[in-house]
Design brief:
heterodimer, A: mainly beta, six-stranded mixed sheet, five-stranded antiparallel sheet, B: seven-stranded mixed sheet, four-stranded antiparallel sheet, 49% strand
Chain lengths: 113, 114
Amino acid sequence: KQEVTQIPAALSVPEGENLVLNCSFTDSAIYNLQWFRQDPGKGLTSLLLIQSSQREQTSGRLNASLDKSSGRSTLYIAASQPGDSATYLCALISSGSARQLTFGSGTQLTVLP
Amino acid sequence: NAGVTQTPKFRILKIGQSMTLQCTQDMNHNYMYWYRQDPGMGLKLIYYSVGAGITDKGEVPNGYNVSRSTTEDFPLRLELAAPSQTSVYFCASSYFGPSTDTQYFGPGTRLTVL
C-alpha cells in the first residue's frame, strides 16, 4: 500500500528565506504527484501537478521536483513571504489506484515577518 | 463561477442522528469526490463519482452513502452518526480523472458528533 510522508510536520522561517518542503513515497509506480496549499478553515488549492514523465514544474516562486526512483518530491519556495504561511500537502496517484489520491499529512509553514 | 460549494459549514450531531452534507459545483466537471480530514492528517477518500448515476467507494466508505443524480450535485449521507465520524469533510471536483487533472476543493464542513 502506498504511503506518503511529509517531514517536518511544522516549519518556521524568517521572511525572505528560500526553503524546501519534502515529500517521500513508498511505491514509485505513480501517475502524477501534486502539491496543494491549505489555509486554515479553507479548502485545498492546487499549486503544481507533476506527471510521472516529468521531473519538475514551476509556477512563480514555486518549483516542484519529482524523483520517482528515490521516491521523493520537493517543493522549493523562493524568497518566502508571510502570505506563504499555510499547510502544504503533497498527494499522488498510484498506478494501482488510478482514481484515488493518496495524501501526506502536510507541513505547516509559518513565515515570520 | 462559484466553484465548489458546501453546506453547512459547521454541524454538531448527536450519536445516532443522520444528516446530509451538500456539495455543488458549477464547472460542469465529470468527476466529484468526498474526502475526510482528521486533525493532523492528510485527506482520505470516502466516495467518488465519474458522472451522473455512477459512484464508487474510496478508502473509507463505511458509515456513508452517496448519490449523483445530476452533474452538479454530489450529496454525502451519514447514517447513525458515530464519534469516529467527527472530522472535516471536503468535496472536490475535476473535469478529467485524477490521473491527469487537478481537483478543485470546496471550503469544507466541520462535523462534530457528540
